[in-house]
Amino acid sequence: MPAALVVGYDPQAIPGIDADALRAALDAELARFAAHGIDAAMTLIVFDESAESTLIASLTSRPWDVVVVGGGIRKAEQLLPLFEQVVNLIRRHAPQAAIAFNTSGGDSVEAAQRWL
After folding, report:
1. How far is CA 70 from each of CA 1, 12, 24, 62, 98, rounded to the nearest angstrom?
2. I need a labelling partner for 75 at 20 to 30 A (CA). Which of 7, 87, 96, 106 fits?
3. How many CB atoms lie within 10 A of CB 97?
4. What's the CA gap between 56 and 45, in Å, rounded?
5. Rounded to an integer, what distance in angstroms lies between the CA atom of residue 24 and that of residue 20?
6. Which one-letter DSSP state was computed for residue 105?
7. pTM check: above 0.90
8. Could you tell me whether strands 98-101 and 3-9 are parallel, antiparallel, or unpaired per DSSP bridges?
9. Are 70 and 105 in contact (CB under 8 A)?
């Protein structure tokens, strides 16, 4: 069974949104992976000193076939340094994994499938 890691921005760290609703949507998307025969996990990070160690722990926990980087990390201009950090950590700590990008939290499965 292929393995996918989804890396997203922690909804609890985003001011002005319904974090519980967004987390429920992310969890529903994670459940869709299993329905498509993909073993998946999600790591949620924030733009602080914990991002690197949190992501490295997830990237090295097992061999991943693909790592999907969420739009919450990529699309916000102020998070560009975090996005660069994420891509470089994937390259260093999971070099065997393809890197995919979703357009929203609801199409991570399709993003992963492009590379599996």
Report:
1. 22, 15, 15, 20, 14
2. 96
3. 20
4. 11
5. 6
6. T
7. yes
8. unpaired
9. yes
HEC readout, the chain: CCEEEEEEECHHHCCCCCHHHHHHHHHHHHHHHHHCCCEEEEEEECCCCHHHHHHHHHHCCCCCCEEEECHHHHCCHHHHHHHHHHHHHHHHHCCCCEEEECCCCCCHHHHHHCCC
CB atoms within 10 A of CB 115: 15
- Tell me the two tokens of residue 103: 């357009």
Amino acid occupying residue 85? Q
Cβ(68)–Cβ(101) below 8 Å: yes
Tokens of residue 30, six digits: 């994670």
From first to last of the 116 residues of the chain, give the pLDDT tens digit.
999 999 998 988 888 888 888 888 888 999 999 999 999 999 999 989 999 999 999 999 999 999 999 988 988 898 899 999 999 999 999 999 999 999 888 899 999 999 99
Phi and psi, residue 97, nearest 5°: -85, 140
